Amino acid sequence: MWKRNVKVVTALLVVLAMVMGLCACGGEGEPSNIIIKNASVYTVDEENSVAEAVVVQDGVVEYVGDDEGAAEYEDGDSKIIDMGGNTVMPGMVDAHMHPAQSALSYYFEIGLQDVVTEEDYLQVVEDFVEENPDREVYTGSGFMRSSFDEIGPRKEALDKIVDDKPVILTSADGHSVWVNSKALELAGVTKDTENPEGGIIQKDPETGEPAGLLQESAANLVSDLKPEYTKEEYKEAITWLQGWLNERGVTTVYDGMVPIDKENYYMAYEEMAAAGELTIRVRGAWHLAPEMGDQEVLSALIDRGMELSETFTTDYFQVIGFKFFADQVLEEQTAYMSDGYETGEADWQGMKVWDDDTMEALFTKIDAAGYQIHVHQIGDAAATYTLDALEKVRAANGENGARHTFVHVQFVSDEDIQRMAELNINAIIAPYWAVMDDYYWDLYVPYVGKEKADNMYPAESLVKAGLNVGVHSDFFVTEPDLGWVLYSAVTRTLPQKVFDLWYEGMDLTRTTETDVEQDYLIGPLKPYDERMSMDEIVKAATYGGAYSMFLEDQVGSIQKGMKADLVLLDQNVFKADIEDVSNVVPVMTIFDGKITYEIEE
């Protein structure tokens, strides 16, 4: 699971006037309709048909066809957009991210996303502390595990900056935290503290003292030290975030980890939705974990989640499922792998999060009630035991139209792919991560071996097996970027723009050539036949995500009567060179028939 976040600033490749001509005819009020013509409208309908024009009126798609037919809708108040032959596609659907949580992190906390070395991390922390001297606790996120050894970053480095207040920094993968000595002291974590269930306290190999990295559930040991945000602060951060997402062409998201115990979190969404203040559609899943309690407690939490879900009645925010971690992540050696790891403790296979009987019982209850099961799955062994449980659920409840989901899908056997298809499991993948990069060389190959690392992140085989495939960024892990996701899905290679940003000044080689034998090459990831076609990735990034959320009758394609969620691009991605496609940018985003983003001339 590639745990990388980057803020990519993409320059326009052409002058805006060459991209599209905008003519807002009539008065200064809202236009009577929006007419987009001279376009390549990729509809993502059943035939993947391409049209010349689309008309948006009263929040829905009124017409899809040729320019001549669209002209019949023109009046003095129409907004007419000439696309110059460039692509119009459905709004992007990000089928798994952490919107509210990430918005808080970006908006209020220390951001380490733009730097890659320990020295730079510490400089960012020091600058933030100097600018915010009155804070009682310093929180942030974005450091990369590949920047440190297996023990991870050390507390002493943070102590030199802050020794009298806690510092708690979440890794880019979201599965560990880097803390200073004060945080450990206030949390009561010492050399005698045992690892909690499902977690690891990394300790100095010489002294036995906590080193400064708390992995997985061990991060909960310091969670009470973090600040609580008000509902208004959540709203402020979400307002910023949705504008930022609209700028990237994203109109629908799935919040993969809604906390049942944080009312300010979910009520910020709900109140904004009820007030008509959201410019993204949000679906989500309540988070459940074994450390929350025994089966009886967890069953009660499911009841509570269902009760709350019934109160969310707008189209803009609904919680439709429950989130389970089947395992954790490869970066922390906590993904549940059938063949184990080549480093660390002998026979270590990673973390199998759930007891089989408990998982089956909770799954059965959720499925019977018509809610979705949304599963974090990295290791192949995690896929196997989760599918075992889901097969028992199917036997108990019968076929009921469920669309349960595996998200990430880093390792999975061919046999289990077929089982996923038989159970109608959504496969939500991140083409951003299906590349050969420093994570591949520094973490994946050493941890599981090159053969295993060269057979991760299936994509085309999921499509061929008949699964519904959607796309996710896992933001804040990776920032959604349409050009990046299209490019990497088609090439399984890191885009040049990302390579230039991450590896500037380093003696590394990027190539798009296959089968080049060179250590630390930044190139295409095997298996090469897992590359997707442009048709397939566009469908996954739109319809696939919509289907996974039961929204395919509303969004995810451009058809008459569908909600008008559209993104207009600065090139024709089906005709442009693939290297140019990596730099594609939205020039306009339309949500519910209203323009929510328009690039500045």
How is this structure best described in words?
The chain has 601 residues and is α/β, with parallel strands linked by helices. Helices cover 31% and strands 22% of the residues.
Number of helices: 19
Helix content: 25-40%
Strand element count = 27
| Unreliably modeled segments | 6-27
Shape: globular
Tell me about the biggest sheet?
Answer: 8 strands, parallel
Radius of gyration, in angstroms, nearest whole number: 24 Å
At a glance:
The chain is an alpha/beta fold and 601 residues long. It has 19 helices and 27 strands.
How are the SSEs placed, and which strands pair?
Elements: H1 16-19, E1 21-24, E2 33-37, E3 40-42, E4 50-51, E5 53-57, E6 60-65, H2 67-71, E7 78-82, E8 87-90, E9 92-97, H3 99-108, E10 110-111, H4 118-131, E11 138-143, H5 155-159, E12 167-171, E13 176-179, H6 181-187, E14 199-203, E15 210-216, H7 231-247, E16 250-258, H8 263-274, E17 281-287, H9 295-310, E18 317-325, H10 356-368, E19 372-377, H11 380-397, E20 405-408, H12 414-422, E21 426-429, H13 438-448, H14 450-453, H15 460-464, E22 469-471, H16 482-491, H17 496-502, E23 509-510, E24 521-522, H18 534-548, E25 566-569, H19 578-581, E26 586-591, E27 594-598
Parallel strand pairs: 2-7, 3-8, 9-16, 10-11, 11-12, 16-17, 17-18, 18-19, 19-20, 20-21, 21-22, 23-24
Antiparallel strand pairs: 1-7, 2-5, 3-4, 5-6, 8-25, 12-13, 13-15, 14-15, 25-26, 26-27
